[in-house]
Write a structure and sequence with these properties.
By secondary structure, the protein is α/β, with parallel strands linked by helices. About 20% of the residues lie in helices and about 40% in strands. It has 2 domains: about 130 residues, Probable inorganic polyphosphate/atp-NAD kinase, domain 1 (Rossmann fold, 3-Layer(aba) Sandwich); about 130 residues, Tumour Suppressor Smad4 (Sandwich). β16 and β17 form a beta hairpin. α1 runs parallel beside α5. The termini are far apart.
Length: about 300
């Protein structure tokens, strides 16, 4: 591994993590690249480049922050050869693979090719004439005072209409984000599918859908709808009104995420989403109470 690119959270303190990367790089003859306006506040020894240059030069892109920083790093790595390693500087960090103390060992493992990668699906659309890409989700969200009245078209044909606060079209990566909060299922990133989840639906049909990535998907704003914001990975990219339509295309393996084999997707999901078993179920590790036999009288 000859070049490592770093993507920094705009506010969190990343000095310890950056120093760990620079120290590893000095000992292993690697160059560290950083986006100029991000690393200037650290006064560090990383080589300042543009985001586009870093994506092309790096053998590995390291995201230092939370899930938002990780999504930005994945967009930078979109279509490039470098996989993305997530380092958690936040509280949840669902997409991250390691914490800061584990960073030097993680870099050594990657340098020795002792890792695997998970291809990650992206969704693309055209909003206000601009091409947008999301690794979590694209959502149409009601502006306060209105309702999101949206028809879902699959293969060019209307399938179902929703009246809701929002309609979320998520990737498996995004199944643990907005879609999950809206009641959608958790989906392994190994699955290639799109999830359509209504948020706070108040229509007759209130269930979500799982669609194939080969399906053509569009959201059409119905006449009774209010103005809708188009959110791309949580950021407003534009607005839609009645009669407008948003076509959404799935693109498998747009980016790759490093996995070191420490935990599985399901272990991370259970721990970080605090998934708990039903109170009626006794975990297998706990002793079961003695069976109470009925008393016989007479």
């Amino acid at each position: 591994m000859h070049a490592v690119g770093i993507v920094l959270h705009p506010q969190r303190d990343s000095k310890e993590a950056v120093d760990a990367i620079l120290g590893w790089a000095r000992g292993n003859g690697a160059t560290v690249y950083g986006i100029g306006d991000e690393i200037s506040r650290l006064n560090c020894a990383a080589t300042a480049v543009t985001a586009e240059e870093m994506a092309k030069r790096a053998d590995l892109i390291v995201s230092l922050g939370g899930d938002g920083t990780m999504l930005r790093a994945m967009r930078l790595a979109d279509g490039q050869r470098a996989p993305v390693l997530g380092v958690n500087l936040g509280k949840l960090g669902f997409l991250a693979e390691v914490d800061v103390p584990d960073l030097p060992d993680a870099l050594s493992a990657i340098d020795a090719r002792d890792y695997t990668v998970e291809p990650r699906l992206a969704v693309d659309s055209l909003v206000a004439g601009e091409r947008v890409t999301a690794f979590n989700d694209i959502a149409v969200v009601r502006v306060p005072g209105g309702t999101a009245a949206v028809s879902l078209l699959v293969g060019g044909q209307p399938f179902v209409s929703y009246a809701a606060d929002a309609v979320v079209v998520a990737t498996p990566t995004g199944s643990t984000a907005y879609s999950f909060s809206a009641g959608g299922p958790i989906v392994s990133p190994a699955v290639e599918a799109l999830l359509v989840t209504p948020a706070a639906p108040h229509s007759a049909y209130n269930r979500g859908l799982v669609l194939s990535v080969t399906d053509t998907v569009a959201l059409e704003v119905l006449p009774g709808s209010g103005q809708l914001a188009v959110e791309v990975d949580g950021q407003v990219a534009g607005y839609l009104g009645p009669g407008d339509a948003l076509e959404i295309d799935a693109r498998p393996a747009a980016a790759r995420v490093v996995r070191l084999g420490h935990t599985t997707f399901y272990q991370r999901a259970r721990r970080k989403l605090r998934i708990a078993d039903s109170a009626e179920i006794i975990p297998p590790s706990l002793p079961r109470p003695p069976r109470q036999l009925p008393k016989v009288t007479g």
